[in-house]
Amino acid sequence: MEYSTKAIHGQVDDTGKGAVTYPVYLTSTFLQEDVEQFGEFIYSRSANPTRATLERQVADLEGAKYALATSTGMAATAIAFELLNSGDSILLSDNVYGGTWQFVNELFESRNLSYELVADFNQYDFSQVSENVKAIFLETPTNPLLHVTDLKQVIQRAKAQGLLVIVDNTFMTSYLQRPLDFGADIVVYSATKYYAGHSDILAGLVVTNREDLYPRLKVAHKLLGAILSPFDAFLLSRGIKTLPLRLEKHQENAQLVAEYLNQQEGVQVFYTGLPDHPGHAIQEGQASGHGGVLSFLLDEEVYELDIFVQSLTLFGFAVSLGGVESLICRPATMTHESYSVALQESIGIRTNLLRLAVGIEASKDLIDDIKQAFEKAKR
Ligand SMILES: Cc1ncc(COP(=O)(O)O)c(C=O)c1O
Predict the structure, then answer these.
(1) Which atom of ligand 1 is nearest to the CA of 77?
(2) 45 is known as an active-site residue
(3) Distance 240 CA to ligand 1 centre (A)
(4) Any idea which residues bear N6-(pyridoxal phosphate)lysine here (predicted)?
(5) Distance between CA atoms of 55 and 310, rounded to whole angstroms?
(6) Of 92, 231, 279, 355, which one's alpha carbon is 20 to 30 angstroms from that of 171?
(7) Is 141 close to ligand 1, i.e. is its CB under 6 Å away?
(8) What is residue 11's predicted lDDT score, i.e. its pLDDT?
(9) Which of 66, 97, 115, 189 is catalytic?
């Protein structure tokens, strides 16, 4: 069955009432019939039917055995990090979501964990890693500079050294890219973004095929209480039904916006859909699209950045991405403000870098909006 069909079907109402959408079980606890033998559902922190249905839907779409639905994307990442033991170290892409970096930078030390930032996993020599390095964590394309990691070759080489591979696949979703197919151990998502798709909930997902790891992830999920509420599970499930349709439009619009921006003076665009992007060929080989996020450097000698941003009427100035509406943000002072200035400079997150999360509005309206903002912002 095709992805878009699976995204819609498969959540059967098991109450016998014939509801076309799966019911929302707004209950914290479940009556038990027997003092010795408990039913499938006991307490909603451990498992809830609405969440369980969503988790089956997500696992099925990813071609995975297991999925866990979490309260946020950061909760999904935190649960994956629970697999680390005191003394362990991880390799982390140097441009990942700012919250992920802040987690390792601020919460690792007290847990006796450490990390090393890696500029480019494609070139990284894994044979040199010290013994305490146990895992790698990466995003591809990265947030916000859209660097591409060659999943097949990097995962193969990391696994040859016995490293656990965790991929944050938020920008792509399983519709466009499935890291487990390349041998990744765990995939995490901020489902707040494309999966939910409407900027109305926070949610996360952890997906794996590893039978040995799943019980530990599940225990962390339950005991940290990092679970998705039944109502948000319902909303996420509803969002997933239109994920393929939305993502197709997001990336069609992103491509057109990127091409338009690329023709403007004083603008340097980062979007893997542009043929001259250094990761273009790898992206085409490992994903079935380029997604809806792009970033660009705006030459402040040509344009006044503030005026440009303020003049946009369809791109809301806000963090986040993956909702139906277009957004613009400045990573240096927003999504990645937790990075030190030195780190931002070393990896290219400059104050004139803007990130666009291109929505599903009419592309002509989006481009017209950018055009009028350029006109107003021109020095
Ligand atoms: C790539 C990526 N990973 C993880 C997160 C964290 O997700 P959440 O905000 O749902 O906790 C974000 C949020 O922006 C993100 O962009």
Answers:
(1) 4
(2) yes
(3) 17
(4) 193
(5) 40
(6) 231
(7) no
(8) 80
(9) 97
pLDDT tens by residue, 5-58: 999 997 878 888 999 999 999 999 999 999 999 999 999 999 999 999 999 999
pLDDT digits (tens, 9 = 90+) for 319-355: 999 999 999 999 999 989 988 899 899 999 999 999 9
Q: Which helix (H) or strand (E) holds 205?
A: strand 204-208
Q: Compute the chain's Rg from CA coordinates.
A: 21
CA 309 – CA 376 distance, rounded (Å)? 10
H-helix or E-strand containing 116?
Answer: strand 114-118
**Sequence-ordered strand ranges (E) for 250-324:** 267-270, 293-298, 316-317
Nearest CA to ligand 1 atom 9: 73
pLDDT score for 92: 97
pLDDT (0 to 100) of residue 339: 87
- Number of helices followed by number of strands (H, E) in the chain: 13, 12
pLDDT of residue 15: 85
Low-confidence ranges of the chain (pLDDT < 50): none
Between CA 315 and CA 310 the distance in angstroms is 9
Domains located in the chain, CATH noted: 3-241 (3.40.640.10), 243-377 (3.90.1150.10)
What pLDDT shows up at residue 91?
98
Q: Distance (Å, rounded) from C-alpha 11 to C-alpha 63?
A: 16
- The helix/strand/coil state of 369 is helix
- Cα-Cα-Cα-Cα dihedral of 118, 124, 128, 133, to 10°? 40
Decide: 190 in ligand 1 pocket, CB within 6 A. yes
Q: Which helix (H) or strand (E) holds 310?
A: helix 305-311
- Residues pairing with 93 in the sheet: 118
